Amino acid sequence: MTVTFARPLADRSLEGGAVGSPWPASARTAPGGELLLGGVGLAEAADRFGTPLYVLDEAEVRSRCRAYREALPQAEVLYAAKAFLCSAMADWVAEEGLGLDVCSVGELRLAAAAGFPPQRMLLHGNAKSPEELRLALRLRVGRIVIDGLAEIPRLAALAVADEAQRVLVRVLPGVAAGHHAAVRTGVAGQKFGFPIEGGDAAEAVSRVLAQPSLSLAGLHCHLGSQITEVEPFLEAVDRVVALLAGIRDRHGVELPELDLGGGHGVPYLADEPELDLAEFAARVGERLAAACAEHGLSVPRLLVEPGRAVVGPAGVALYRVLAVKHGTDGRVFVAVDGGMSDNPRPSLYGARYTVRLVGRASTAEPWEVDVVGRHCEAGDVLVPNAQLPADVRAGDLLAVPVAGAYQLSMASSYNLVGRPAVVAVRDGRARQLIRRETVEDFLNREVGR
Ligand code: LLP
Question: What pTM did the predictor assign?
Answer without folding.
Answer: 0.95
